[in-house]
Amino acid sequence: MTTVASEKSKSITSLLNGTITSIKGVVPIQHEINKPQLLQQSLKISFGVLIGITGDIKGKIVLSGDTSVFGSIGQAMFGMPLEGEMLSSFSGELGNMIAGQLSTNIVENGIKTDITAPTIIEGNTTLSGYEKAIHIKALFESVGELGIYLLVD
């Protein structure tokens, strides 16, 4: 393996580990995280949030799930049900918190990144045009599943 490929692999591993650590630190619900899987097709989403990643690694982090999952996470964090515009706003902020914590986590490995403002995804959407996509499932107790996608450019 060339040095460039080795560095990229190391950076992606840091990104994955940083994401898992971020979720553990941000979401106050018992959960289980499945092993990362390489996504072999275009990403299809009906509700979620996309945060761009710039700097040493370029790509996107996408959180995807039913609105009820985002609502339950919001209720666990803020003690009140979230619906409509508040749910969309919270979903973007959840993405910000996880991606921001991710940037903080991986700087310890010498990887400098920044994040973009969140983009809320509603309706049937297909994302493509990335070099590699890694999917992680977070299963939250009594809440449901949140899909985490790392799209590397």
From TrEMBL:
<dbReference type="Pfam" id="PF13690">
    <property type="entry name" value="CheX"/>
</dbReference>
<dbReference type="GO" id="GO:0006935">
    <property type="term" value="P:chemotaxis"/>
</dbReference>
<protein>
    <submittedName>
        <fullName>Chemotaxis protein CheX</fullName>
    </submittedName>
</protein>
<dbReference type="InterPro" id="IPR038756">
    <property type="entry name" value="CheX-like"/>
</dbReference>
<keyword id="KW-0145">Chemotaxis</keyword>
<feature type="domain" description="Chemotaxis phosphatase CheX-like">
    <location>
        <begin position="48"/>
        <end position="126"/>
    </location>
</feature>
<dbReference type="InterPro" id="IPR028976">
    <property type="entry name" value="CheC-like_sf"/>
</dbReference>
<dbReference type="InterPro" id="IPR028051">
    <property type="entry name" value="CheX-like_dom"/>
</dbReference>
